[in-house]
Amino acid sequence: MIFTELRFFAFLALVLAAYWALRGLQSRKVLLLVASYVFYGAWDYRFLGLLLLSTTVDYSLGVVL
After folding, report:
1. Residues 2-47: pLDDT tens digits?
2. CB 3.0–4.6 Å: which of 18, 33, 42, 45 could bond 1 by disulfide?
3. pTM for the full model?
4. Contact (Cβ atoms closer than 8 angstroms) between residue 48 and residue 28
5. φ/ψ (deg, to 5) at 61
């Protein structure tokens, strides 16, 4: 998915509508995290494991430190 494609703008509109429909801050954060994984997965799904590993390591280090 490239930023200039029509499907990106449809994806963006869907995510923004879902974001503003949600009330809680935590649920909005989860939505943005999932939307990020979907966006990067649309480019090349093989990198999702690396992204998940990086997210887990960064979050864990942030909690510990």
Report:
1. 778 899 999 999 999 999 999 999 999 999 999 999 999 998 889 9
2. 42
3. 0.81
4. no
5. -65, -35
Cα 13–chain centre separation: 14
Quick one: CA torsion of 13, 18, 22, 28, rounded to 10 degrees?
Answer: -80
Average pLDDT over residues 49-65: 94
Question: What is the full DSSP assignment across 1-65?
Answer: --TTSHHHHHHHHHHHHHHHH---HHHHHHHHHHHHHHHHHHH-GGGHHHHHHHHHHHHHHHHH-
Q: With a cut of 80, say whether residue 1 has pLDDT above it.
A: no
